[in-house]
Amino acid sequence: MDATLNILDSLGADRPAVMGILNVTPDSFSDGGRFFSPKPAIAHAREMIRQGADILDVGAESTRPGSRRIPAEEQIARLGAVLPAVTAMGAAVSVDTTLSAVAEFALDAGAVIVNDISAGRDDPKLLRLVAQRGAWVVLMHMLGEPATMQHAPHYNDVVAEVQDFLQARAAEATRAGVDPRRIILDPGIGFGKRLEHNLALIAATPRLAGHGLPLLVGASRKSLIQRLAGETPPPARLPGSLALHLRAAELGAALLRVHDVAEHAQALAALRAVAGAEAAAPDAPQPAGEERGRG
Ligand code: HH2
Question: What is the pLDDT of residues 106-119, one digit of tens each?
Answer without folding.
Answer: 999 999 999 999 99
